[in-house]
Amino acid sequence: MLSLIVSEGKDLTKEEKQRLRKEKKQQKKIKEKKDDKASQENEKEKKPVTSAAPASQPPTQPTPTKTKAELKAERRARQEAERASKQTKKGETGQQAATSKPKAPPSDLQPVVKRLPEHIQVDNPDVLKKLAKKLERQQIPLRSDYGYKVSLFSHLHQYSRKAPLTQQLSIPSTVIHPAIVRLGLQYSHGIVAGSNARSVALLHAFKQVIRDYTTPQNEELSRDLVNKLKPYISFLNQCRPLSASMGNAIKYIKKEISNIPSNCKEDEAKNKLLNCIESYINEKIILAGVAIAKCAIEKQKISDGDVILVYGCSSLVNHILCKAFEKNRKFRVIVVDSRPRLEGKEALRRLVQKGISCTYVLISAVSYILPEVSKVFLGAHALLANGYVMSRVGTSQIALVAKAFNVPVLVCCETYKFCDRVQTDSFVSNELDDPDDLIVTRKGTTPLEGWENESSLGLLNLVYDVTPPDFVDLVITELGMIPCTSVPVVLRVKNVDQ
Amino acid sequence: MDLTPIKKLVEYFRDQMKKDPDMASAVAAIRTLLEFLKRDKGETILGLRESLTSATDCLTGVDSSVAVSSGGELFLRFISLTSLEHQDLSRCKKVMEERGELFLEKISMSRTKVAKLCHTFIKDGAKILTHSYSRVVLRVLEKAAAEKKRFSVYVTESQPDAAGQHMAEALRKLNVPVTVVLDAAVGYVLEKVDLVIVGAEGVVESGGIINKIGTYQMALCSKAHNKPFYVVAESFKFVRLYPLNQQDVPDKFKYKADTLKTAKNLSEEHPIIDYTPPSLITLLFTDLGVLTPSAVSDELIKLYL
């Protein structure tokens, strides 16, 4: 039945294609629950229902009500299967397949089917197979996970820094531009770190790619260049998962490229693109930083006698503090730092160089020094659509303690870091860094040296965490000061502009 | 040369306030600005805008409430939305005047709109707590009384000017049973009341409000008692401020205009307003509708961006 429908692929309507997709998903789920006899019975129930659906749906008939009835029957059958298999469910794999399924029926009635992104489905072997196939097609090596993963985070990738992706590449690589290879190495080794720095480096690398690009015969620049960029993006993703700001920058570039008119000459088009990227960096990152600093200083968010607490190294927060110091505001800074990255040391260096008086503590002492603090300034990696702030791990802890002490928390973030995603916890989507970073040698001994040999020991090196909007008092963007709950309003206004 | 129009302006403003004591100070300020616009003999639009800004500044020098400055800013924005379309200055001015009159009309209706929205939240037999003298709250209670609802009101005395007594008298004229309580008795009386309604001098970007001193502790107590805390305010009171705490509210709003001019050491003066953060407010009733505190920022973005 299935093969028949597949051969008629081109003649299927959108509804039928979605039904096909749903069928395939159901087949996958059924394969996973092979041990459960109850689900096998339901399989027989489901198959006639789903195979009846495409057969009984001629594309000419407008059948919205029939679709709903079919969906209801399928949903009921699926719910029974889930209920029956609840006792033998295998943790996340079962849950994920189940969560992706109830998503499918409501979205069938809408044109877009939302799927879970592949980078948070690492424990689903089918998703991994798909990814491997895609990378094979793009001729990019697949990076393998390293070490034992803590079960709560087994759905995320965990790579080792000692095994960079470039070792599996042939140098010079014919598929990937050398600037991108270099960038990927810089990302995976942490040489380029920090949301703004990564985005700017990415945009500069793309500029180099565009400069060296020549349109092949019988191809259009607008389509071919986008296709050329796809394997680069996969490669960079393998080196280190893309940040939200990088994602937005890439969307912008792809849009600009595809908007190039076909009658445009190659040199002109390339110049236009280079200018676009240059202006994006200028407007969204550099000038936005200047505007945010101006807003923070003029609206008296940094006043004389203030004691400001900062966490880690945020380029934007450092910029604001330096500018305020230049305007002769009298304040002192407390830099909070945490292992294993110890990024606070870099922030401390930059501030002390300017002449700002600083104190340095580790995050374990934050409840000790908070009574002295008058304001907390935090940077952000991304601002999510429900008002949650995604930032370096430890940020939500500081926001929580500050709230308990009634100290105002200010987040500084440019609008290009606002993303459409919604997340309420730090587990669903995160990044796992190299677990070997947690190993430290003190007084000649390395306690965690042989951690791989301990079967029940897992090392967790989380990179990001998510802070709820109740802990954040104010977000300073280049559009002005907004409460955390107004992030979707800004996103909406931006979408209207575009 | 520039002083006499300003002096006349201030006189006109004071006259307006005396003529109709029921009118909000911001409305009087906007009327004054409109009059100023009509009398202005400037030659350029930029000059006009500058003189209007300086007029607003001097009005805030007379009455330092938040509402006057926010009303003035909004008036300026409202009329200048069309200023670039016409070539001729006099035509431009005419259009600005018309829009100014329109704006005035809209905001004079705003109190009625607010009363219409809010009175349904007052149930029969309700006990209401309110703070100091607010004309908007008075209008809401008038409407509720007109709808034949039976309710009783507790008013705080609200020192240092005992404005609460004024409110109590006005309510007695409406035949509403009213009790005046001390400011210190708010926690005591809260277990008896069903809801708290206060006015606002200004609504800030975060969704919090600036109001007569004593509002913050009333809000804190009602949160502790789980009683709804409602704020009634007209939309011209929305102001582009974002205080993080009490200290962050600018000095020019905290003290009366005369105190600002004469006091030698401001830190020894007692502030007359305080800031209530949005987490303590249940709902805001405005002429733009019934808003949650987080929706205020949305409305402000629409108004200003």
From TrEMBL, chain A:
The keyword Cytoplasm applies. Residues 8-18, 32-48, 67-92 have a biased composition (Basic and acidic residues). It comes from the Eukaryota. Pfam families: IF-2B (PF01008). The keyword Protein biosynthesis applies. InterPro entries: IF-2B-related, IF_2B-like_C, NagB/RpiA_transferase-like. GO terms for molecular function: guanyl-nucleotide exchange factor activity; translation initiation factor activity. Residues 1-110 are annotated as: Disordered. One of its GO terms (cellular component) is cytosol. Keywords: Cytoplasm, Initiation factor, Protein biosynthesis. It is found in: Cytoplasm, Cytosol. Residues 19-31 have a biased composition (Basic residues). GO terms for biological process: animal organ development; central nervous system development. Acts as a component of the translation initiation factor 2B (eIF2B) complex, which catalyzes the exchange of GDP for GTP on eukaryotic initiation factor 2 (eIF2) gamma subunit. Its guanine nucleotide exchange factor activity is repressed when bound to eIF2 complex phosphorylated on the alpha subunit, thereby limiting the amount of methionyl-initiator methionine tRNA available to the ribosome and consequently global translation is repressed. Belongs to the eIF-2B alpha/beta/delta subunits family. PANTHER family: TRANSLATION INITIATION FACTOR EIF-2B, TRANSLATION INITIATION FACTOR EIF-2B SUBUNIT DELTA. Component of the translation initiation factor 2B (eIF2B) complex which is a heterodecamer of two sets of five different subunits: alpha, beta, gamma, delta and epsilon. Subunits alpha, beta and delta comprise a regulatory subcomplex and subunits epsilon and gamma comprise a catalytic subcomplex. Within the complex, the hexameric regulatory complex resides at the center, with the two heterodimeric catalytic subcomplexes bound on opposite sides. This is Translation initiation factor eIF2B subunit delta. It comes from Astatotilapia calliptera (Eastern happy). The lineage of its organism: Eukaryota, Metazoa, Chordata, Craniata, Vertebrata.
TrEMBL record, chain B:
Its main location: cytoplasm. GO terms for molecular function: guanyl-nucleotide exchange factor activity; translation initiation factor activity. InterPro entries: eIF2B_alpha/beta/delta, elF-2B_alpha_N, IF-2B-related, IF_2B-like_C, NagB/RpiA_transferase-like. GO terms for cellular component: cytosol; eukaryotic translation initiation factor 2B complex. Gene3D superfamilies: Translation initiation factor eif-2b, domain 2, Translation initiation factor eIF-2B, N-terminal domain. It is found in: Cytoplasm, Cytosol. Keywords: Cytoplasm, Initiation factor, Protein biosynthesis. It holds the Pfam family IF-2B. Component of the translation initiation factor 2B (eIF2B) complex which is a heterodecamer of two sets of five different subunits: alpha, beta, gamma, delta and epsilon. Subunits alpha, beta and delta comprise a regulatory subcomplex and subunits epsilon and gamma comprise a catalytic subcomplex. Within the complex, the hexameric regulatory complex resides at the center, with the two heterodimeric catalytic subcomplexes bound on opposite sides. Acts as a component of the translation initiation factor 2B (eIF2B) complex, which catalyzes the exchange of GDP for GTP on eukaryotic initiation factor 2 (eIF2) gamma subunit. Its guanine nucleotide exchange factor activity is repressed when bound to eIF2 complex phosphorylated on the alpha subunit, thereby limiting the amount of methionyl-initiator methionine tRNA available to the ribosome and consequently global translation is repressed. Belongs to the eIF-2B alpha/beta/delta subunits family. This is Translation initiation factor eIF2B subunit alpha. The gene is EIF2B1.
